[in-house]
Structure formats: structure tokens, C-alpha cells
Amino acid sequence: MKFIHVLLVLLLGGCAANSGVVPLGQDTYLVSRQAATGFSGAGTLKAEALKEGNEYCVSQKKVMQVIHTEEARPPYIFGNFPKAEIQFMCLDPNDPELSRPKLRKDADTTIEIRN
Predict the structure, then answer these.
(1) Rg (CA), the chain
(2) Is residue 9 assigned to a domain?
(3) Can you give the pLDDT at residue 107?
(4) 66: in domain
(5) Tally of domains in the chain
(6) Residue 5 lies in a domain
(7) Residues 62-103 pLDDT 10s
(8) Domain range holding 69?
(9) Is 30:86 a contact under the CB 8 Å cutoff?
(10) Structural domain contains residue 102
């Protein structure tokens, strides 16, 4: 019975996804993390993605500037497992873009035009 539990944990753990650092453009990158099940919290995934992005920028002797974050919304069923994605820039420490974060807010309202 223990063997079945261990096997199940290994199979589910193998379904987790981590994009690594993906270039989006000049000095701009993306990191995404997705849990293997619906039992993980998106906050932990987001923190891990932020840590990975920051470590990447530090390795280049630059500073991370977060541009956008996104998380999957519940219910976490049918493959919609907790997911976190961050977009960020790696900038020189004296870059004026670092003065304040400029996070984009996603639209939360849909306008329907009927004829």
C-alpha cells in the first residue's frame, strides 16, 4: 500500500510545470510555475517565480523590476491547477525605470455592445 502512495506522489509531482526564465524582449523576461494538483497554493508558486526571476537578474548584476503578475483563479479542477506567472525586467541599478513599479492591472470588466 505504501508503494502505491509513493508511486502516486511521484506521478503527480512529475506533472508540475516550471518554465524557467524565458526572454520576452530586450531585458524583459517571464517565469511561470504550475502545480501538479489543486492542493497547492498560488502564493507559494508566485514566491518561487519571483525568487527565480530575482536570482536571474542578480546573476547578471542587475535589479529585477516586476511588470506584471498573474495567477490562475479557482476552482482548481480539470487541469486549471494553481499557476503563477510573472513578467519582469532586469535593469541596471541606476536605471530610472526602477524609481517605482509600474504594474499593469488586467481588465476586470467586460463591456458587451449589442446592436
Answers:
(1) 18
(2) no
(3) 64
(4) yes
(5) 1
(6) no
(7) 999 999 988 877 766 676 678 889 999 999 999 988 876 666
(8) 14-93
(9) yes
(10) no
Nearest to residue 104, comparing CAs of 89, 93, 94? 89
pLDDT digits 0-9 by tens, 15-46:
567 889 999 999 999 999 887 665 566 668 88
Phi then psi for residue 93, to 5 deg, are -55, -25
Three-state SS letters, the chain: CHHHHHHHHHHHHCCCEECCCEEEECCEEEEEEECCCCCCCHHHHHHHHHHHHHHHHHHCCCEEEEEEEEECCCCCCCCCCCEEEEEEEEECCCCHHHHCCCCCCCCCCCCCCCC
Specify the pLDDT at position 9: 44
Q: Looking at the chain, how many residues does it have?
A: 115
Quote the pLDDT of residue 11.
Answer: 45
Residue type, 80: N
